[in-house]
Design goal:
The structure holds two protein chains of two kinds.
Chain A lengths: L3 E9 L5 H9 L3 E5 L6 E9 L2 E7 L11 H13 L3 E7 L3 H13 L4 E6 L1 H6 L2 E3 L1 H8 L3 E3 L8 H14 L11 H14 L8 H9 L3 H10 L1 H18 L3 H20 E3 L7 H9 L4 H33 L2 H8 L3 H37 L1 H14 L8 H6 L4 H7 L6 H13 L3 H14 L2 H25 L8 E3 L8 H35 L3 H7 L1 H7 L6 H7 L5 H11 L12 H13 L4 H11 L1 H30 L1
Parallel strand pairs in A: 1-4, 1-5, 5-6, 6-8
Antiparallel strand pairs in A: 2-3, 3-4, 7-9
Helix pairs in contact in A: 3-11, 5-11, 7-8, 7-10, 9-10, 13-15, 14-15, 15-18, 15-22, 18-19, 18-28, 19-21, 19-28, 20-21, 20-27, 22-28, 25-26, 27-29, 28-29
Chain B lengths: L2 E5 L8 E7 L10 H13 L7 E7 L6 E5 L2 E5 L1 H5 L1 E6 L1
Classes of the chains: A alpha/beta, B alpha+beta.
Chain lengths: 646, 91
Amino acid sequence: MAEKRLRIALAGNANVGKSVIFNYLTGLHQHIGNWPGKTVEKAEGTLHFKGYTIDIIDLPGIYSLSTYSIEEQISRRYIAVEKPDVVINVVDASVLERNLYFTLQLMELGAPLVLALNQIDIAKRKGIEIDVEKLEKLLGIPVVPTVAIKGIGIFKLLERAVEVAEKRETSKIVVKFGKEVEDKIAKLVKMLEGIRYWYPPRYVAIKLLEGDEEIEKEMEQLNPEVVATAKKISKEIEKLHGHICSTVITAERYEIAGRIAREVQKLVSPIKPRFEERLHNLTTHKIAGYVIMVFSLLAIFYSIFTVGGYFSDFLNELFYTTEPLFYNFLGAGTVGKLAWSMMEGVIAGITIVLPYIVPFYIILYFLEDSGYLSRIAFLMDNIMHKIGLHGKAFIPLILGYGCNVPACLGCRIMETERERLLAVFVTTLVPCAARTVIILGLVGKYLGIEYALALYIFDLAIIFILGRLAFKVLPGEPTALIMEMHDYRWPHLKTVLKQTWFRLLEFIKIAFPLIILGSFAIKLIEVSGLLELVASALSPITVTWLGLPLITGITLIFGVLRKELTLIMLATLLGTTNFAEVPGFGPIQMVVFTIVTMFYIPCISTIAALIKEIGWKKAILITIFEVIFAITIGGIAYRILILTFK
Amino acid sequence: MSKRKIPLTALKAGETATVVSIDAVFGRGRGRRWGRWGFEKRLMDMGLTPGTKVTVVKSAPFHGPIEILVRGSRLALGRGVAERILVEVEE
């Protein structure tokens, strides 16, 4: 018997419980990767139901199906081109109007639909009751009430979805705009007859009127006449209404959504200030809000880095006890050393990944799902704007002080690619714990804490300047905060844990080979006796330009693996931990060395995180930029310091 | 009953007004076509279409974003965004 396969796509606004349903359906049979050629996350999974093998794909959470963001483009393309057998539209029953606006667009796209009316429990507590049958009738599609976090309605949802998928049944109802707009749509649809294109004619007509760039561009190839007519018509509508055509259509669509919502929902009990409401007011309060935020962040920071630090040290020691084993079996010669270097890479990976990234991911998803993240963004937006980012970037940035790796991974919460790029870039400049070790252990110890502090401030200034610069240089829209603050709710723990687990796997896949290879390569240089050679090759930069001792070239190379290694290697190579005694390594050199270490390259794990979040090309670009930047600024600092202090 | 057109940011906490239009032209030569379209479209997609009622709940300190209620949901808008939304108040 041939295998019966079905494909189901989950679509809907952000924060409506889509991922909870996804996790419910797929359990541990899921895979998280990226959309081909994009840095947008793609979550897929499988399940078996009624003799079918069902592939489930979780589309990104979006509010519309236009070209505002890559997520929207990906979603509509997937629905139109890959044609899933059914699309489950997850909607938040407590904010029905906004969610139906998206449903209407899915209907325009002609997708076979089932509506999951999620969070009906929350809606009920808000005093909203929904007439499910009436909603089914008005939309012409099955509607299943669900409470995803309790698993209520999921089975029925799946049953209905399979029924629709078997028949590939689309709604018989065409939601009509006003007569005037409908006439224009009809005219365009007629012109589109006979043109083979993946989007249905009615959808194309609407999008052309809305001035959708992607569709305009593609239709230009197929039939430039339609595009020209559409442009003319939309100008007419614009003149008539005094708003651009896309606004007219959007407004009408929202009116329809509003009308349907009003028809099916009944406000039962008066809305009293609920607990969620009070919590919202408190956490966004102009004084209390900041106090709560500071305490929460301190608690998060403290718990990640003390607990993480403890486990990191523990694991480190545990794994290093295997060192003699390697040398016993493979000998203390080249083979043993090389093998051990790879093990060291693994250890580096494990001691960073497990203790820091796991709690960070869990906390980040917890903050996001509960709704607190958006409140912090609200409070911090103005300050973050100074470096061209919006409020959401605050959390990753702050956590960058502990470790850049999870911080870069956390930049995923930024909505557009541009914002994400800006956020990761700024994050890699934040002095992490390892860099703090160097600042304190070198400058702080030998020159005094005030100099260490000055370097910290210098770093902040650099972050500020480079952030603004990148903001100016990067093409695209200026960052603007347009963010929904959904009601507070208790996050679904299982979903949070699964999200953590599958993203962790994804990171390990990228990071571990890189870390292991890196540490192997450096060991290879070391055992083959080429270190001196490399140091000499770097001497024009290290000695001539930066005024540092020759040996620092070697330590800087090791620092690529982990930044604190620059200091450790310096001690090893110099044979002393009292750096003040080293000739040619005075206060000026210490400062220059620290500045270079602060900026010169994101460590190899951070580079891996960059690759995961923004792709190879941009990750390499940022790395190269930072190397050049660090060398330049180090050299300048050297010259200024020489002039001032001599 | 007179009506006046003011930016959304001019409303006091607790006041309700009707959206009239969005001034979507970015100043300082940043008026890229796509950008402009995207910005306005995004606000529309969030439900801030002309004729919609919005209530300002509060604004974040230090000239931060403002919190509004629109179509039954709660939105945070950066001040720069909110300044471009023109509303009409009935007096």
